[in-house]
Design goal:
The structure is a single chain. This protein has helices spanning 2-21, 28-76, 81-84, 95-107, and strands at 112-121, 124-134, 140-150. By secondary structure, it is of the alpha+beta class. The chain has one domain. It has a 3-stranded antiparallel sheet with strand order 1-2-3, with helices on one face.
Length: 151
Amino acid sequence: MHHLQIIGLNLIMIKMLMIKNNKNGFTLVEIMVALCIFALIAIPVYMFFSYSAANEIEYHKNVSASKLMESFKNEIKQYSFEESKGFINANNAPPNTKKIYDEIKSKFSDLEMTITPDSVDEKTMSFTLTVTWKSRGGAERKTSSTFVKVK
């Protein structure tokens, strides 16, 4: 019976040692290495998507400016010379152009449109339509076009 007790104690001690040496978790070093590898992969991926999103926004602002210019050009043709004199700023733009501007302004609050009329003579009037916005990095972008209305 004495041998069985010793064997039982030995089995218990062996189990305790096994439990003590059992390493099912991760060490702090392993976790730090894994986080560094994740960061090395995640940061360039994030930068790529961030850069792509900024480029897409810039593209949409360019398209919006072109859309405003095209609308103004087509609309100014429909009005008489005298009616055209009333188009002096973004609030007094032709109706369709004003509608498009308001829609674009609701998407891009930094986009501004200015209309600068200039009487060349009593039979000719020119309008300069300028659209400005902020691009990536805060730089101001501007596009403008001049339209001439003849009496």
